Amino acid sequence: MKIKEIIEMSTDELLTKKRDLRQESLHLRLQQQSGQLEQPSRLRLLRRDVARIETVLSSRKNQKNEKK
Predict the structure, then answer these.
(1) Which residues, 6+ apart, have CB-to-CB distance to 11 below 8 Å?
(2) What pLDDT was estimated at residue 14?
(3) Most buried pick, 26, 38, 46, 59, via CB within 10 A?
(4) Mean pLDDT of 30-43
């Protein structure tokens, strides 16, 4: 997921996407523990996507606080 796509999403969409990515990450980690994970690189990509979303959410929160 590109940062440009993330910035264009609404805050509610970002929160939903973050929850979905974390859930998928949990399932992949469980597969990794049982030795059934086919794409280990997917875990890294999910972690990075979650970090991008959290960065955008925190910057929006900071901008909102500065306006007050």
Answers:
(1) 57, 60
(2) 97
(3) 46
(4) 94
